């Protein structure tokens, strides 16, 4: 059978990519405007950050505060993150970005301390 008779047209990869990006942008926009989803992600990232801090204390050399190898009391529970409204999305994102930057600084200090003198 000659090409084009009874066969579907071959897909345009660029059009498929554009459609896929449009779908994902739509999904991510819907997710970002869902208050419950934003709250859940905020709690999840906070939990990850707390876990990373506790894990850092178990490393040789420990945390910058000298708490190496000591489990110690759990950090007091802070207030729960406020539910983000549409207007507060940017503030929530900035808060998370600041928190990640803070954790990166702490990890850099820990990594530097684990190298030891003259390493």
Please outline what is shown here.
This protein has 119 residues and is mostly helical.
Mean of residue pLDDT? 76
Beta-strand percentage?
Answer: under 5%
Overall body shape: elongated
Helix count equals 3
User: Can you write the helix and strand succession as a string?
Assistant: HHH
Question: Helical percent range?
Answer: 55-70%
The tally of beta strands, per DSSP, is: 0
SS-based class: mainly alpha
Query: Unreliable runs, pLDDT <50, ≥5 residues?
Result: 68-72
Distance between the ends: 71 Å
Biggest sheet: strands, sense, closure?
none
Radius of gyration: 24 Å
Task: Give your account of this protein's structure.
Helices cover 59% and strands 0% of the residues. The chain has a domain of 75 residues. α2 runs parallel beside α3. About 4% of the residues have low confidence. The chain is mainly α and 119 residues long. The protein is built from 3 helices and no strands.
């Amino acid at each position: 059978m000659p090409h084009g008779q009874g066969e579907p047209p071959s897909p345009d990869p660029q059009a498929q990519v554009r459609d896929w990006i449009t779908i994902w942008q739509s999904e991510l926009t819907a997710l970002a405007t869902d208050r419950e989803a934003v709250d859940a992600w905020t709690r999840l990232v906070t939990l990850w950050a707390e876990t990373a801090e506790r894990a850092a204390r178990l490393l040789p050399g420990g945390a910058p505060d000298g708490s190496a190898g000591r489990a110690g009391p759990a950090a007091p529970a802070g207030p729960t993150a406020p539910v983000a409204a549409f207007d507060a999305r940017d503030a929530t994102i900035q808060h998370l970005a600041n928190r990640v930057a803070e954790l990166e600084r702490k990890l850099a200090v820990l990594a530097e301390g684990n190298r030891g003198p003259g390493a």
